[in-house]
Structure formats: structure tokens, C-alpha cells
Amino acid sequence: MTGPADPGAAGRPRPGPLARIGHDPDALEAFYTEHVTAVTRFVARRVADPHTVADLTAEVFLAVIHSAHSYRPGRGTPVAWLYGIARNVISGERRRAANELRAASRIAGRRLLDDDDIARLEERIDTESAGRAACLALAGLPPDERAVLELVAVDGLPVTDAAAALGIRPGTARVRLHRARRSAQQAMGRPAAPDVPQEQMERLI
Hints:
Elements: E1 2-5, E2 13-15, H1 17-20, H2 25-44, H3 50-67, H4 78-99, H5 103-111, H6 115-127, H7 129-137, H8 143-154, H9 159-166, H10 170-188, H11 198-204
Antiparallel strand pairs: 1-2
């Protein structure tokens, strides 16, 4: 993303807002303010512990700082790029959690949350319970298909943005989405299917 040319830099374009995040605190604050609620909701649809939601949301924005220079608008919207980062952070956390408890970092993170913070996060987690149920219902799908369906049906991204978040072509995303919906429809008909609210189920299938 680029802005108008900078007359003082021999006509070179100024970096856009995302490119400035890594070194411009105002740009970072503006991006954070605009997107922190969406990221918190994204994480809360996949995690039910308020401390972990807070930790992972912070990690997403740390990753944003380090990778802002790599954003290319031709590959998708900022939201698609951000959700791609959030997916990677959550996946990384799940891999780490399988190997160790990371007790020290979790204790440190909890000291940063007061009672009001925890209450707000618990409210957000409760609000996103339908999304978590939907993600659980999709657990048996092939990972590539599940990823597209989660982003489109649960997180509300257009197919083109879901494709950008996953680093695949839109046509590939549409094929995977079609397969995933068909698989989800079969899964929802099984007696042991998770309790997904009707409105959310209609989005999945």
C-alpha cells in the first residue's frame, strides 16, 4: 500500500499506513484501535480462557509489527492479512501447548489483567460461544477445507479475503469451500454432532 509521492525524496512514494507500523507508533496505534476488537473476537471463537485470549491477541499485534513491511495490497485486504497472521499465531500456540505448559509466560500475562479486563474478556468469550461451537463442529473436516469454511462462515470473510489469508488462489478457496460445506452438512446430521445454534449452522452448510 503506498501513498502519494514525497517531493523531498526524489519522487519516491511514501510507505502506506501498514508499512509504517513497524516504526511509527501513531500508525500502530491507529491500526490497533481499528482492529483489536475483531482480533479479540477471532481469538475468542477459538479459545475459551480469557488470559489466553489476551496473550494471543497481544502476540498477533507483535507479529503485525514484525511483518508489516511484507504486506502487499494486491494479495488481499488488511483484514485478510491480519486474520492470516492470527491463524498462524493460534496454530503456533497450539503446537507449543502440546509440548509445554509455558507456565512462566502465562503467570506473567495474568498479572497484566485486572478484574475488569477479565470480565470484559469473559463477556466476549461468551458472545463468541456459537463461533466456538461451529469451529468444534468442523474439527473432523480436512484441515485445508476447514480453514476456508471457518474464515468464510464463522469469521465472515469474503471468499477472496479468505483465500488471501490462507495464501491460496480464490478459485482454490471456492473449491475447498464447496467441499467443506458438503462435508459439514454430513457431519451436522450425525447424532454426536456438537450443539451449534441454528443460525450458525445455516452459515456452515
